[in-house]
Amino acid sequence: MTIVIKGGTVVTADLTFRADVLVDGDTIAAVGPDLVGDEVIDASGAYVMPGGIDPHTHLEMPFMGTFSSDDFDTGTAAALAGGTTMVVDFCLPAPNESLIDALQAWHQKAGKARTDYSFHMAITWWGEKVFDEMPLVVERGINTFKHFMAYKGALMVNDDEMFASFSRCAEIGAMPLVHAENGDVVAFLQQKLLAEGNNGPEAHAYSRPPEVEGEATNRAIMIADQAGVPLYVVHVSCEQSHEAIRRARQKGMRVYGEPLIQHLTLDEREYFNADWDYAARRVMSPPFRDKANQDSLWAGLASGSLQVVATDHCAFTTQQKRFGVGDFTKIPNGTGGLEDRLAMLWTRGVRTGRLTMNEFVAATSTNIAKILNIYPRKGAILPGADADLVILDPAATKTISAATQKSAIDYNVFEGMEVTGLPVVTLSRGRIAYQNGEIRSETGTGRFVERPAGPPVAKALSTWKELTAPRRIERSGIPAGV
Ligand SMILES: NC(=O)NCCC(=O)O
Ligand SMILES: [Zn+2]
Ligand SMILES: [Zn+2]
């Protein structure tokens, strides 16, 4: 059974051209003029792009005394409706839990997925067992390890643990990721604010100023450089962090930065809303920033110092957010975004001229496929690539509303915003998974995508580090000691 997408304009990270796309089974069979297939999808007037890859989701995540409310079923339904065909979720071992056991638990949860998926393994504690199991995780198709520099007393790891883990990543061809905020300072500021009577959601933002993110980003970059490993900084929200990444890249370091669609489009005024629920629903870490910081993130995407736009989809209901009434530190941190990432980025990025269409594809799909070492299987429109495709109608428009979303929660942080340029058809590995507002793929049809270790950048960096490593100078005329 073949499907041909006819009459559209193919947009990839580097090219825009008129062509049909022929899909045979799971993969793309041909890209070119006048292709013929058993079933035809008319894409006239629309753009055909690689399906979105969201490298940062937390589906059914145990966190802050509860579980995020979108699981792999509803979360990946939301993804498909938003043109995203692969998610990378975070596997979080409990303290002292084996990484392999945790991985098994995450595979179990992901059995419900409707899109392809992968995991990042979080380093939530450190010891010989973790050191020994990291290569086993890599053997199981995971080449990234996440480190939380915040959430003191829960997920946070210290510098010595990070250095040990980053060094292990270098040895096994894996890449560390960081949530970069100074967890000690955040914990101090939280207690100070509470003691001063600042217990509402706005205090969440006060407790995590851009400086704590900038400092942690600089520290993580230094540790990665000393360990000789590339680094990926998740949810970069401010100039302080972006500046650290930009500077490191200018020095030749292999550092990547990931802004979120929320930080690009929502600002700190959200926390000053007089409605407690409204403000608490937007509590996430790092918090939303001001316009100057948003401009910095947009500039980073345009100039290439930031590479990926993700969501950090971690959806809690209003009921769950109310755990923090009277104490903002107990508001579960996280917001949704999976369903709206592409439409929001198209509307606020491409339609405003901040991004080209090709930059849009790079930021939503191709760059992360390369960083995660799954390109061109994912993130490409080429014969042999997985037929993960999105047809985006640049004229289609809607007003974002929780009433019509696929996500399981009862609100949407983008509620009421008008978006123009919508994913209208999504194909997941060759099957029509979303069309005319309907999810057509069944729960459980997603597949785990193995990501091999040793991507080209890791290999290049280890060659360079070896070449420039300190070397003993052999001397003949050594003066006699005194
Ligand atoms: N971002 C957030 O507030 N929640 C999810 C966990 C994390 O990524 O820090
Ligand atoms: Zn985080
Ligand atoms: Zn996250």
TrEMBL record:
InterPro entries given in the database record: Amidohydro-rel, Hydantoinase/dihydroPyrase, Metal-dep_hydrolase_composite, Metal_Hydrolase, Metallo-dep_Hydrolases_sf
Pfam family, one: Amidohydro_1
Keywords: Hydrolase, Metal-binding, Zinc
Reported modifications of this chain: Carbamylation allows a single lysine to coordinate two divalent metal cations.
Residues that bear N6-carboxylysine: K146
Ranges of residues in domain Amidohydrolase-related: 47-430
Single annotated GO MF: dihydropyrimidinase activity
Reaction it catalyzes: 5,6-dihydrouracil + H2O = 3-(carbamoylamino)propanoate + H(+)
UniProt record, GO biological process: nucleobase-containing small molecule metabolic process; pyrimidine-containing compound metabolic process
Oligomeric and partner information: Homotetramer.
Similarity section: Belongs to the metallo-dependent hydrolases superfamily. Hydantoinase/dihydropyrimidinase family.
Protein name according to UniProt: D-hydantoinase/dihydropyrimidinase
Gene: dht
